[in-house]
Amino acid sequence: MSKFNVPTREEVSLNNQEIFDNLKKAVGFVPNLYATYAHSENALANYLALSNAKTSLNAKQKEVVNLAVSQVNNCLYCLAAHTAIGKMNGFSDAEILELRSGTASFDAKLDALAKLAKDITENRGATSSNVVTNFFNAGWTKENLVDTIVLVGDKTISNYLHKTTNVPVDFPEAQPLETTIA
After folding, report:
1. Same domain flag for 123 and 165
2. 119 lies in which domain range?
3. Structural domain tally of the chain?
4. pLDDT of residue 182
5. Cα dist. 102→30, 46, 70, 117, 167 in Å?
6. CA distances from 160 to 107, 164, 175 (A)
């Protein structure tokens, strides 16, 4: 049961109403988690600025990180949203499940990225030196490392917001990972 309501356009500030309008034009709807940020006058704009900021990671690489982090944090909302976005970025169902587990046997470079994102999240930034070495050996740069850490923080913010508010998930439910590993 949700601890918070999902605010409607009429219930948010004028600035947030404008953001809602832009989201509706771009995405077709205002995702419940984004709407939840609008309980704050500034959080939605700040989060979108962070989430849409320039990075050395492309959209597909960002989804690798988003899926691994959301799985570690067990965020049902973000797993559902990023499963859908991962498919839009060309990942198959099987690849998405693998990325959620923190691996990518289908691509060595993405495998190093998934392992890094998972390790950073599980160890709260006390990342294994072996994981970092493997990341660099796979062809990633220091810029990619820093951008990955920023993205882990970005996704963790949304994971925590959903885990705290438990607003309804408005994306197709992601398949539980446990059922695919058994």
Report:
1. yes
2. 59-181
3. 2
4. 42
5. 29, 28, 10, 7, 26
6. 29, 6, 20
- Phi first, then psi: give them for residue 127, nearest 5 degrees: -70, 140
Q: What is the pLDDT of residues 37-54, one digit of tens each?
A: 999 999 999 999 999 999
Place of tokens 């859908």: 84
Whole-angstrom Cα distance, residue 104 to residue 109? Answer: 8
What backbone phi and psi angles, to 5 degrees, belong to 175?
-65, 135
Q: Are residues 164 and 89 in the same domain?
A: yes
pTM over 0.90: yes
What is the structure's pLDDT at 177?
86
**Do 38 and 19 meet the contact criterion of CB atoms below 8 Å apart?**
yes
CA–CA distance, 80 with 70 (Å, rounded to integer) = 9
CB 34 within 8 A of CB 161: no
Nearest partner of 31 among 52, 50, 48, judged by Cα: 48
Q: Give, in order, the Cα–Cα distances in Å from 95 to each of 71, 87, 157.
A: 14, 9, 24
Specify the length of the chain in residues: 182
Contact 6, 35 (CB under 8 A): yes
Parts of the chain with a pLDDT under 70 = 1-3, 179-182
- H-type alpha helices, 2-107: 14-27, 32-37, 43-51, 59-72, 76-88, 93-100
Same domain, 73 and 143: yes
Name the residue among 30, 43, 23, 22 with its Cα closest to residue 158.
43
